[in-house]
Amino acid sequence: MGSVAERFVLPARYEIHKLERHHNRWALAILSHSNIFHQELTDVLYPEDRVARCYQLGQAYYTIDHCIESGYSFGVFDTEFKYKREKSAQKGGELYWDDRNLDVTEAQLLEQMDFPLVSVAMAYDPIDPFDHTKLGPLMTAYPVLGQMAVINNARDLRPEKERLPKGPGERLFRAGTATRVDYEGHGLAKGLAYFLMHHVAQLGFKGVQIDGMHHAMKKIWLNPPAPFMAQLLGEVDSADYEEEVDGKMVKPFFPVSEPLIRVWVSLVPEST
Fold first, then answer.
1. Is residue 110 included in any domain, yes or no?
2. Is this structure's pTM higher than 0.90?
3. Do residues 221 and 210 make contact, with C-beta atoms less than 8 angstroms apart?
4. For a FRET experiment, which of 30, 52, 213, 245 has its CA 20 to 30 Å from that of 223?
């Protein structure tokens, strides 16, 4: 895919490739590190024991493996990545996390991610949905994902039958996106998102759905490249969101102000 980086406005040193099963630990490490240490909502929800939670989330393999096996998950690789260890260079990359060591810092965990995968976009065809009996480790480590699903389902006004595909290769659901913090600011998430839209459009998909909780994600997904069109299916400011807990209304995400959104990007005219 040598021309992909140029086409989607990525610097020449970066390449987009389909993720394979052997990338699962790397992809999960990027998602875990980004969400636990560089997500404002996490600061409010899970201020304690972050290293342990990062390790825990980094072991929730089921959803990552399901997305990779679907064939619709991609990553950005740095072709000029500088390995920090000879072993990593020999193997083409390695992750050195040790979940017995709770005394490491966020920066040390990042340094131990000694591999060239730097940004990921996980996705799957909902005709082959997640097995919810296998989501326990993920929801235990990062329960806000379950809250997000409830919030967005409540604001999605489409009839239930219109939310799911009638057959394979019709709708794509995004299921996680992250860029490692030392590679932010280079447009990798945007380039990867636009690439995925074009890629699945060529495969005949009608559209892509994504749930998000970040201003940058909202900007990317509500402004897809032509000829694609975006529709905001639901949004609430995290600082304003209320829910009932023990008979009282609370704002679980306050004071963080991030858009909790569901977006549908139509890849063909008049698809929802």
1. yes
2. yes
3. yes
4. 30
Strand partners, 114: 94
Burial (CB count <10 Å: 0-12, 13-18, 19+), residue 59:
middle
**178 - beta bridge partners?**
120
* 271 found inside a domain: no
The two structure tokens encoding residue 111:
């340094």
139 inside domain: yes
Number of structural domains found in the chain = 1
119/39 Cα distance (integer angstroms): 15
CATH number of the domain that 167 lies in? Answer: 3.40.630.30
pLDDT on residue 8: 59
Q: How sure is the predictor about 2, in pLDDT bands with cuts at 50, 70 and 90?
A: very low
> 58 lies in a domain?
yes
The residue with tokens 């730097």 is 118
113: pLDDT strictly greater than 50: yes
What is the per-residue pLDDT across 65-82, written as a single tens digit (0 to 9) for each? Answer: 999 999 999 999 999 999
* Residue 152: domain span: 4-266
Half-sphere exposure at residue 195, Cβ-oriented, CA atoms within 13 angstroms: 29
pLDDT score of 234: 95
What is the residue-wise DSSP string for the chain? -TTHHHHTT--TTEEEEE--GGGHHHHHHHHHHHHHHS-HHHHHH--S-HHHHHHHHTT-HHHHHHHHHHT--EEEEETT---SSHHHHHHT-EE---TT-----HHHHHHTEESSEEEEEEEE-TTS---GGG-HHHHHH-THHHHHHHHHHHH--S-HHHHS-SSTTSEEEEEEEEE-GGGTTSSHHHHHHHHHHHHHHHTT--EEEEEE-SHHHHHHHTSPPTT-EEEEEEEEETTT--EEETTEEE-TTTT---EEEEEEEESSTT--
